Amino acid sequence: MVENINKIKRVFLIVLDSFGIGELEDAADYGDEGSNTLAAIVKSDKFKAPNLQKLGLFNIEGVDHSMAVEKPLASFARLKEMSKGKDTTIGHWEIAGIVSNKPHPTFPNGFPKDFLEEFSKRTGRGYLCNMPYSGTAVIERYGQDHMKTGDLIVYTSADSVFQIAAHEEVVSLDELYRYCEIARELLKGDDLGVGRVIARPFVGEPGNFTRTPNRHDYSLVPPKKTVMDELLEEGKDSIGVGKIYDIFAGKGIAQTHKMKNNEDGMNITIDLMDKDFEGMCFTNLVDFDMKFGHRNDIDGYANATTEFDLQLGQMMDKMRDDDLLILTADHGCDPSTPSTDHSREHVPMLAYGKMIKEGIDLGTRTSFSDIAKTISEAFSTKGEIEGNSFYKNIVK
């Protein structure tokens, strides 16, 4: 057991999904040389983030320091991804204390025929597409055929995902979710074990299809213990907001709150600040990635950051003396590059609270898992997870 220097009661860990801050050394191996999500969005006139700036976002090593502040309010670091990959599941697992030495499989040429035949047999439906595709483009291309035949639109991306798109009037949500559970059962092992199976329901008419907010992710169960598991073992609270529950297949998450969008997710998180609990609230803000990064929408991404920054100010004002706020990301998704896929980037880490030292530059650290180890030390859990804690460096 680690003796607390000071007693943190609540941690609010917020992942700005895909908020990368510059290419990793091995970015070229992933086709991401030159990617820098933050550098892309700050050029937009929609970008205004005074609270992130005050905390020290632009003081982080490797970030353009022209917007740095003299006295940052937070301690800060640039984090490398030690795991092999750049997808949501692997990124979040590493943040929670699991380093993945082998990437989840990807299917640039589509999924194997044997798997699809078994999937079709179990669902009683045929399939369309089976190629890497943009989520909005795939329903535009195959939506009408799907409505005529009832065949499921299955597709992937550069990430380790198997996605099933279906019109809600053709395939009910319950059916679609059941089909995803079938796929999740089949997609296991080193060869087929994709990081996520994703339900992608949509509505509308040919020429005017729209994806609905009823998406649901089915992840692999984390293979090892996370910091959330350790918190639960110690009788602490572990709360997920957004798709955190889905990313970890429910493991280590005792309470979950679904959200409609970034604003709703932040409102839920801010409301939870009024609750008396001891442990962690883990929030994922997916709109940065899903709505803007993957659609190469620079202004949309920048505006989403501006809107988040306003709510961040509300959080900062509401923080109790024993609260710790940590902001980070799980990978990049540079909206200025030709690619619409995730990018292999460093991510920021900003740690803020009344018990936290201001302006401590932790430099560049070797793993996202340092966040998990720091939270583990803050709560004096067993610390069996991976990572190197920076708790003693930042607590007053």
Automatic annotation (TrEMBL):
SUPFAM superfamilies documented for this protein? Alkaline phosphatase-like (SSF53649), DeoB insert domain-like (SSF143856)
Q: Does the keyword Cytoplasm apply?
A: yes
Binding of Mn(2+) 1 occurs at: 17, 330-331
Q: Name one Pfam family in it.
A: Metalloenzyme
Source organism of this protein record: Peptostreptococcus anaerobius 653-L
Cellular compartments annotated: Cytoplasm
Major site of localization recorded for this protein: cytoplasm
InterPro entries, sorted: Alkaline_phosphatase_core_sf (IPR017850), DeoB (IPR010045), Metalloenzyme (IPR006124), Phosphopentomutase_DeoB_cap_sf (IPR024052)
Q: What is its EC number?
A: 5.4.2.7
**Does the record carry Cytoplasm as a key word?**
yes
The beginning of the lineage is:
Bacteria, Bacillati, Bacillota, Clostridia, Peptostreptococcales
Q: What name appears for this protein in its UniProt entry? A: Phosphopentomutase
Provide the transmembrane region boundaries. none
Q: Which family does it belong to?
A: Belongs to the phosphopentomutase family.
Tell me which residues bind Mn(2+) 2: 289, 294, 342
Q: Name what cofactor the protein needs.
A: Mn(2+)
